Amino acid sequence: MDTTTTLQTIRGWPTDDRLELVFRLWDQLVEDGWQPEPTDELVAELDRRLAAHEANPGNVRTWEQVQERVRRPQ
Asked: Structural domain boundaries of the chain?
């Protein structure tokens, strides 16, 4: 079966099944040694966050504080 036929078949699958396939393929690629390159945007964001932390290292939250904030009803 060629890629085009496979994709046409998969298009008829439920969304959850298609997502599961994507995640499994991604995991397989990583297990086989593939390492995705970070995008320029990701590198810039990580640099921005690191600079912000270095400028104010006391401005942090504990993991417990983060969990509490996420679980708090809005």
From this structure: 40-71
